[in-house]
Amino acid sequence: MDQGRCPAGEAAVQDVQQNRDLLDSGLTTEMIRAILPYLCGPAQIHPPRECVTPETAALLSGHVERIQARIDRLARNRSRLAAHLAAVRPGGSG
After folding, report:
1. pLDDT, tens only, 38-74
2. pLDDT single digits (tens) 66-84
3. Which of 6, 10, 16 is nearest to 36 (CA)?
4. Which of 46, 49, 50 is nearest to 36 (CA)?
5. What pTM was estimated for this model as a whole?
6. How far is the C-alpha of 67 from the C-alpha of 69, rounded, in Å?
7. What is the C-alpha separation between 6 and 8, in angstroms, rounded?
8. Across the strands, what pairs with 59?
9. Cα end-to-end distance, the chain, whole Å
10. Cβ contacts of residue 29 below 8 Å, gap of 6+?
11. How far apart are CA 40 and CA 18, in angstroms?
């Protein structure tokens, strides 16, 4: 076994978990298929610049924008809920 490499079974489990995480993040199977050859680890994507087609870049860019919009909505909702809780709790403290 190579130094620093997972046993085959463990590597397969990590691959499945990585794909599950990508799906959970909202990536479509089409997007995952496009970036799969460039996944270098659980949190790393290292595609050679010449391998990133304009279509793949557009897919990923659009997804980043959708994630940011969700983050912004969640942050607004969190602030509103925190303000509501502060107003209805005894003493008004958060």
Report:
1. 776 666 666 677 777 888 888 888 988 988 999 999 9
2. 889 999 999 999 999 999 9
3. 16
4. 46
5. 0.59
6. 5
7. 6
8. none
9. 54
10. 23
11. 11
